[in-house]
Structures are given as structure tokens and as C-alpha cells.
Amino acid sequence: MALRAAAFALLCCAAVPASAQLGAATQSPPPDGVAEGAGAGNPRGRYHALDALPDWGGIWFVSAGASGGGAPPAIPKLKGEYLQRYQAWRAEVAANAGVVRRTRSNCSPPGMPRIMRLAQYPYEFLFTPGRVTINQEAWMQTRTIWTDGRAHKEDPDPTFMGDSIGHWEGDTLVVDTIGISDAIELDTGMPHSARFHLTERIHLSADDPDVLVNEMRMEDPEALEEPFEVTVRYRRDRHGSLIEFQCAENDRNPIDEEGNTQFL
Questions:
Q1: 54-58 contacts: CB < 8 A, separation 24 or more?
Q2: Which neighbouring-strand residues pair with 59?
Q3: Domains and CATH numbers, the chain
Q4: Number of Cβ atoms within 10 Å of the Cβ of 76
Q5: How many CB atoms lie within 10 A of CB 229?
Q6: d(Cα 193, Cα 188) in Å, to the nearest integer?
Q7: Which of 93, 112, 120, 162 has the most CB within a 10 Å radius?
Q8: What pLDDT digit, counting tens, does each position of 145-202 carry?
């Protein structure tokens, strides 16, 4: 029994350095452009700098007519196969009394850039050293905009939100986003390519400090004839809070063998 206990103790002692070595080996290096000990991963002692940033406190709702007043909303000018896919989508919707078939779960979020233009659900902007975090009530999404000086990932995995890096120009947050999945729509029924590129300039309105303005510029050399620009305005609820959004509990729409949602 004593021999067995001694062997167990020796094994435990030997395992500690191995575990420590494994932890050291898997430690991520700082992102490109960020010095060791700096950036969003090391926020302590840098919160005071946030006081110089503009006041975006509260939650924000897309304003009615935020994309152009009473005029018909502008739409992106698609080209080539992307235009053909959009036209085929429109024809299918028309043939099915306006019912839209989806190739993914009805509970999956719309992703960028559409999720920044939702009229019903509010947004919350949080400033911390090295990043701006956008909490979105719709689908309880979280978007991170890195402001610690890092560069884009060399080959980012395509995601719903993409890879966003930003910097401040005075009181304007300038955001550059790539790596948005081409399975996500540019606008309703409108596809885009893996080369889709979004630039945003977000700032308070000069006329009303309770209005936030997002100037969006979308570029895609494969899918768009020309850059598409749209301005979105959000109104502030200073003391509001986000409400929990849970969709998956009722995600019961029938699907076929390939996972496509069936018409109801």
C-alpha cells in the first residue's frame, strides 16, 4: 500500500511540470500590431483613457426612416451570377405567395451588415481598453470591434460578424470589417462574395446628441457594380436595457433531407 501511494505521489508531481509546459505551449501570442503586454488583453490601468471618448451610454434603436426618409430605400446594384441568384430568389418568392425559403435555421441571426439595420431590436455600445463591444438584443449577439492597433487576421475564418478592427478619428469610430461569411445576405435575398468589405463611420449627430449616425460603405468587386452606401440613424434610450431574446426554443420549422426549411 505504501509503495502504491508513493508511486501515485510521484506521478502527480511529475504531471505538474508537463501541465505547465502544455499551458505555456498553447498560450496565444499578441495579435499582429500589438506589443507584448499591451492591447485589449491587458486592460488594467488604461480605463481612465475612456473618459476622453464620446458618450454613447444607454441603448439605441434604429430610427424610423433611418435609411433615407420617405424615399424608397436604395438597394445595392448586383452583377453577374449574384444578380442572377437574386432574380431567381425573387421569382421563387413570388411563386410561393411571398413565403421565403431559408437554407439555414430560422433562428440563426442575419449577420453583418443587416444586423446593424434592424428596426425592432436595440443595441448597446460598451467601451473598454482596446475594444468596442456591441451587444445586440436580436438573437443576443455580441460584436467585437478591436481598437488596440491590431491588423486584420491574414486569413480570417468566415463568420456572421466578420473580423472588425477600428480606430478613433476624433469622436468618430471608423470600423473596417472583412471575413463575413458569404452564406450571409448583403440584404434580403441578396448574396455577396467572400471578398465583401464593409467600412463604417459611427458618430453622434451634430444636431442631436441623442442620435447616433452610422455611415456604411459596402464594397464587393465580385458581386457589386459599384460601392453601396447607406446611412443608418439610431435614437437613444438613456436608461433602457436589453431584453433577453430566445428563439431556439421554438425553432421547429420542418426541413428536408438537405436541411432546407420547408414552406409552411
A1: 54/171, 54/203, 54/204, 55/204, 55/209, 56/125, 56/127, 56/204, 56/212, 57/238, 58/124, 58/236, 58/237, 58/238, 58/239, 58/240
A2: 237
A3: 53-250 (2.40.128.20)
A4: 22
A5: 13
A6: 15
A7: 112
A8: 999 999 999 999 999 999 999 999 999 999 999 999 999 999 999 999 999 999 999 9
Residue 168: HSE in the Cβ half-sphere, 13 Å Cα cutoff? 15
Spatial separation of the C-alpha atoms in residues 232 and 98, rounded to whole Å: 26
Answer for the pair 146, 118: CB distance below 8 angstroms, yes or no.
no
CB 157 within 8 A of CB 145: no
Adjacent-strand bridge partners of 145 = 132, 164
Cell of 186: 448583403
Q: Which run of H or of E encompasses 234? A: strand 228-237
Residue type for position 19: S
3-state DSSP helix/strand/coil % of the chain, to nearest 5: 20, 25, 50
How far is the CA of 119 from the CAs of 32, 48, 234, in angstroms? 36, 34, 9
According to DSSP, the β-strands at 141-146 and 123-128 are unpaired
Q: What is the pLDDT of residues 110-155, one digit of tens each?
A: 999 999 999 889 999 999 999 999 999 999 999 999 999 999 999 9
Cα first-last separation, the chain? 69
157-195 b/e (C-beta count within 10 Å ≥ 16 → b):
ebebbbbbbbeeeeebbbbbbbbbbbebbbbeebbbeee
